[in-house]
């Protein structure tokens, strides 16, 4: 089979652009203007607060990608602030080699932070939720103990002098502007990642891991890159923190501080840049405003967290997200436009048939599939039907690499289809939908669909970080293709809506649009008509036929017998994991055993 990577002519989307992570820009500019105007007050104390806020934000920008976007509970991030602060201070003080200039020491801290960021993050590849959170806390304790014990270098409990920045950054206001500069750059960098295919992939891994895998997203590589970036930014924040403090001891890196970073993102809201920024501002200002209650600050955080979780579960971001409030058109209908498929799927090399031979898979004592043979021909719709529990979804899961069969073989033409490796299926242009739609509720419909095209991205992480031309061009192409896919399935008008505001039937069509982004050679549909109205099922049938006419081989698992008999070229009937019958719809409709086991009289 040849992968269909031919480029197709794309036309620009007809709808307004969907908001990026920095839109609208004005709240960021307003906050920056306020912080930059602090020197006008002449109040050095407020200068200190504003500088601290900017430094915390530098750390939170990176951590936000981990916690807010990837959904990893990294609670002990103060450890990386500490690593950065000590690396910068030790190198600038010349405790291990000749003293380095402050900026060089800060650069080294960034590199050290990137390495430690990966070390802290690695457990996330195996551990989930609180188990991972515990490892980050453990790491924070280890770092704290090392800084205490390694007296020759770190000064132990007595501490070490922080680095001094060169002029003009050696004054209160100079340092403020330097930190604001870092904050702006970090905001820009992380927003670039967030709006790239890497950012969407992070959110997909968080909310719809199997759909992410089916789209070719490899979680380990993605997380390592992001942990590296977040580690570097946290360590740079640490270097700036040591400069601001002028003198650091292990006591400066408290658990409260770690909690502040984490809660800033939690109350800010997931998958947002502005929310966590506001969260950081609030949590930095809170102890100052409630100065008389300083000893209650931890309790204040806890109360605030409770209030926010109860009052606005989506955090500040959800509250200020206009997509949550904008009314969606009432009585909307899904009207697929098959002509959009001409541009989207284009002229492609027709793949060779996909064959399954003698596939066997048992779960414990249950033989879910027991010697299944199946051929999906390109340009045809192949129905896979059978009673509940007969092995239909398991067959799809074997084809899409989630399960490894115990015996039997799979091939596309003469090329064997390797068992396992669900992330590798996207590159082979095998796309699928799921029995229960897998969506990223907080992302727009357009972004959900764009995830389906992740595998076609060639621009690297660094190109995304700096928003280089190739990255921007790919994003434009991807967006144009996603709009075409949405037009093809009849959801063009909902591109900008949050996916969790869609109706069930719309989600089913959205999943098909996401699958179409692969320009699939084979499309596996798992009960796409479940929950659809009669008219929607009719439109779905026409859409599936149109897709197959463009050369795609469709494997359709369905319980709606009428749909199967209307649109399928071939039908295979499973019963208790075995093929009960296979043939044309006309043959199956009158097959005695099929009628008695499944169709009924
Ligand atoms: N992960 C699993 N662990 C254990 N048993 C499983 C697993 N997945 C499926 N099974 C079992 O394998 C058999 C086939 O299940 P499968 O979901 O493939 O059936 P199906 O034909 O898709 O059914 P339905 O129409 O209800 O979706 C069932 O007996 C089911 O209980």
Oligomeric state of the chains in view: single chain
Number of self-contained structural domains: 2
What are the low-pLDDT stretches, counting only 5+ consecutive residues below 50? 1-16
In the CATH scheme, the class of the largest domain would be Alpha Beta
Summarize this, please?
InterPro entries: AAA+_ATPase (IPR003593), ABC_transp_permease (IPR001851), ABC_transporter-like_ATP-bd (IPR003439), BCA_ABC_TP_C (IPR032823), LivM-like (IPR043428), P-loop_NTPase (IPR027417). 53% of the residues lie in helices and 10% in strands.
What is the topological layout?
Layout lengths: L25 H16 L2 H26 L8 H16 L8 H20 L7 H21 L1 H4 L5 E2 L10 H23 L2 H11 L1 H6 L4 H27 L1 E2 L6 H14 L5 H16 L7 H15 L3 H6 L18 H7 L8 E10 L2 E11 L4 E5 L6 H8 L7 E6 L2 E2 L13 E3 L12 H6 L10 H5 L3 H21 L14 H13 L5 E5 L7 H16 L3 E5 L3 H7 L2 E6 L2 E6 L1 H5 L2 H8 L2
Parallel strand pairs: 5-10, 5-11, 8-9, 9-10
Antiparallel strand pairs: 1-2, 3-4, 3-6, 6-7, 11-12
Helix pairs in contact: 1-2, 1-7, 2-7, 2-8, 2-10, 2-11, 2-12, 3-4, 3-5, 3-10, 4-10, 11-12, 11-13, 15-19, 19-20
The protein binds adenosine-5'-triphosphate.
The site of adenosine-5'-triphosphate has 11 residues, from strand 4 and helix 16.
What features would you describe in this structure?
Its main location: membrane. The chain crosses the membrane at residues 25-48, 55-80, 100-122, 129-151, 171-191, 222-241, 274-294, 300-320. The protein is an alpha/beta fold and 601 residues long. The chain folds into two domains: 42-255, no CATH class; 339-599, P-loop containing nucleotide triphosphate hydrolases (Rossmann fold, 3-Layer(aba) Sandwich). The chain is built from 24 helices and twelve strands. Strands 8-9-10-5-11-12 form a six-stranded mixed sheet, with helices on both faces. The protein has a four-stranded antiparallel sheet with strand order 4-3-6-7, covered by helices on one side. Strand 3 and strand 4 form a beta hairpin. The longest helix is centred in the middle third of the chain and has 27 residues, at 219-245. The protein is elongated, with a radius of gyration of 28 Å. The chain starts with 25 loop residues before the first helix and ends with a helix. The site of adenosine-5'-triphosphate (ATP) has 11 residues, from strand 4 and helix 16.
């Amino acid at each position: 089979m040849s992968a269909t990577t031919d480029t197709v002519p794309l036309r620009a989307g007809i709808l307004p652009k969907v908001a990026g992570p920095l839109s609208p820009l004005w709240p960021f500019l307003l906050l920056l203007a306020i912080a930059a105007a602090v020197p006008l007050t002449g109040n050095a104390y407020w200068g200190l607060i504003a500088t601290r806020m900017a430094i915390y934000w530098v750390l939170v920008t990176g951590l936000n990608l981990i916690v807010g976007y990837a959904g990893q509970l990294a609670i002990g991030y103060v450890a990386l602030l500490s690593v950065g602060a000590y690396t910068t201070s030790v190198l600038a003080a010349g405790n291990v080699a000749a003293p380095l200039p402050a900026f060089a020491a800060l650069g080294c801290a960034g590199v050290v932070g990137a390495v430690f960021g990966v070390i802290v993050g690695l457990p996330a590849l195996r551990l989930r939720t609180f188990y991972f959170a515990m490892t980050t806390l453990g790491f924070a304790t280890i770092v704290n103990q090392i800084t205490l014990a390694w007296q020759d270098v770190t000064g132990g409990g007595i501490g070490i002098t922080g680095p001094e920045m060169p002029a003009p950054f050696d004054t209160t206001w100079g340092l403020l502007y330097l930190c604001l500069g870092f904050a702006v750059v970090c905001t820009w960098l992380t927003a670039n990642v967030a709006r790239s295919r890497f950012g969407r992939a992070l959110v997909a891994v968080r909310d719809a891991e199997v759909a992410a895998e089916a789209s070719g997203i490899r979680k380990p590589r993605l997380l390592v890159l992001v942990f590296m970036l977040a580690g570097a930014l946290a360590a740079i924040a640490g270097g700036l923190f040591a400069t601001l403090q002028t003198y650091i001891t292990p006591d400066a890196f408290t658990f409260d501080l770690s909690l502040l970073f984490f809660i800033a993102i939690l109350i800010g809201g997931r998958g947002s840049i502005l929310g966590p920024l506001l969260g950081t501002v609030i949590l930095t200002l809170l102890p100052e405003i409630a100065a008389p209650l300083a000893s209650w600050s931890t309790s204040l955080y806890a109360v605030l967290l409770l209030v926010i979780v109860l009052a606005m579960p989506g955090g500040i971001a959800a509250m200020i997200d206009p997509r949550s409030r904008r009314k969606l058109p009432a009585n909307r209908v899904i009207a697929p436009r098959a002509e959009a498929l001409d541009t989207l799927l284009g002229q492609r090399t027709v793949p060779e048939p996909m064959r399954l031979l003698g596939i066997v898979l048992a779960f414990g004592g249950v033989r879910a599939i027991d010697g299944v043979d199946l051929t999906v021909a390109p340009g045809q719709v192949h129905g896979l039907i059978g009673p509940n529990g007969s092995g239909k979804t398991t067959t799809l899961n074997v084809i899409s690499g989630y399960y490894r069969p115990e015996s039997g073989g799979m091939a596309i033409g003469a090329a064997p289809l390797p068992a396992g490796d669900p992330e590798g299926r996207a590159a082979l242009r095998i796309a699928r939908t799921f029995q229960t739609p897998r969506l990223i509720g907080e992302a727009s419909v357009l972004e959900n669909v764009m995830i389906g095209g992740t595998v076609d991205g060639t621009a690297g992480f660094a190109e995304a970080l700096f928003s280089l031309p190739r990255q921007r061009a790919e994003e434009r192409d991807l967006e144009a293709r996603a709009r075409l896919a949405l037009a093809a399935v009849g959801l063009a008008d909902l591109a900008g809506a949050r996916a969790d505001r869609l109706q069930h039937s719309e989600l089913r069509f959205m999943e098909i649009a996401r699958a179409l982004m692969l320009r699939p050679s084979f499309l596996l549909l798992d009960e796409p008509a479940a929950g659809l109205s009669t008219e929607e099922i009719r439109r779905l049938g026409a859409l599936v036929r149109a897709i197959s006419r463009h050369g795609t081989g469709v494997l359709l698992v369905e319980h709606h017998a009428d749909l199967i008999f209307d649109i399928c070229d071939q039908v295979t009937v499973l019963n208790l994991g075995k093929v009960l019958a296979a043939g044309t719809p006309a043959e199956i409709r009158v097959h005695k055993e099929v009628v008695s086991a499944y169709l009924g009289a």
